[in-house]
Write a structure and sequence with these properties.
alpha/beta; Rossmann fold; 11 helices
């Protein structure tokens, strides 16, 4: 019996070591783009002439718009606030010389998509960035304590992704090329209390992206969910950047190097490392009342501090 147990432990230990080795080797693919770009300079232009970015007025959407223009694409900005898009458009035109088209639309509504589709007619759209999104409330809270704006959030976080993808994917398939980035969130990769609807809506984006990639990867189309942790944007009250909390510009530049690394990435090396650490923590800990209260106090205090300093 002792010899059998010894053999069993040896086999189990070998399996654990093998799994760890495979995971380590797979993780290396996220390190290489951090050191040196693995994409040819013409990659993004090869997708098509135009990139469409939703929620393009500021934050991550603004950063994608400017960065893709720098990489040679004309840009379609879609957002609710016309003045913000005008500033982004002027910045793009002055710094890159690329053409810019502005479409004003409120993604909390459902009657906007026929007008968007008409406005995009005649444009060869090679890249779609489904970035627009909203929190139910900036302060984390229990479901029944939050404002009942469920329909607006679902329209903005879920329906925008499906409808914009349907519009753009129809023209990508005949050309056999294209790139669709669905900007989700790390809190969409696990059930996150105090952000119940937001977490669930971002989980939809992850699952939707993976399913579509399986359907269309043989047609030359890349569809990827990008699930960042903290990025300094208006949604996070411009929280101070650090090693983990990236600026929108730094995050976007790095995330564009990760687009061939799978149907879901956390967008940058720091967030990939953080995700591996978080995944080691049992969900029961995140779901405990003590941790929920600590999270609520920490985020509320940070938002209050940021609000007072602006």
């Amino acid at each position: 019996m002792g010899e059998f147990q010894q053999h069993l432990l040896t086999v189990l230990g070998s399996i654990v070591c093998l799994v760890f080795l495979v995971k380590s080797l797979r993780f290396l693919k996220y390190v290489f783009p951090y050191i040196r770009s693995t994409l040819p300079p013409s990659f993004f232009q090869s997708m098509g002439e135009w990139a469409v970015i939703t929620g393009a007025g500021d934050g991550i959407g603004r950063a994608y718009s400017i960065e893709l223009a720098k990489r040679g694409l004309n840009i379609v900005l879609i957002s609710r606030t016309f003045q913000k898009m005008q500033r982004v458009a002027l910045d793009i035109e002055q710094t890159t010389g690329q053409r810019v088209k502005i479409i004003q639309a409120d993604f909390t509504k459902m009657d906007i998509y026929s007008d968007i589709e008409k406005s995009l007619q005649g444009l060869e759209v090679g890249i779609l960035v489904n970035n627009v999104g909203m929190l139910q409330t900036s302060i984390p809270c229990h479901f029944l304590d939050a404002t009942d704006n469920d329909q607006a959030l679902i329209n903005c976080n879920i329906m925008s992704v499906t409808q914009m993808t349907r519009i753009i994917l129809k023209q990508m398939v005949p050309r056999q090329r294209g790139l669709i980035l669905n900007i989700s969130s790390a809190v969409g990769t696990f059930p996150c209390p105090l952000y119940a609807i937001y977490s669930a809506s971002k989980a939809f984006g992850c699952t939707f992206s993976k399913a579509l990639q399986a359907e269309y990867n043989t047609k030359g189309i890349i569809i990827q969910a990008v699930t960042p942790y903290s990025v300094s944007t208006p949604m996070t009250m411009w929280s101070k950047p650090n090693l983990i909390n990236k600026t929108a510009e730094d995050f976007v530049r790095e995330s564009l190097e990760y687009i061939t690394l799978g149907d879901e990435t956390f967008g940058c090396l720091a967030h990939e490392i953080l995700a591996r650490l978080v995944q080691c923590i049992p969900l029961q800990i995140f779901h405990s009342e003590r941790v929920q209260n600590m999270l609520k106090d920490a985020i509320s205090g940070r938002l209050k501090k940021n609000s007072n300093s602006t």
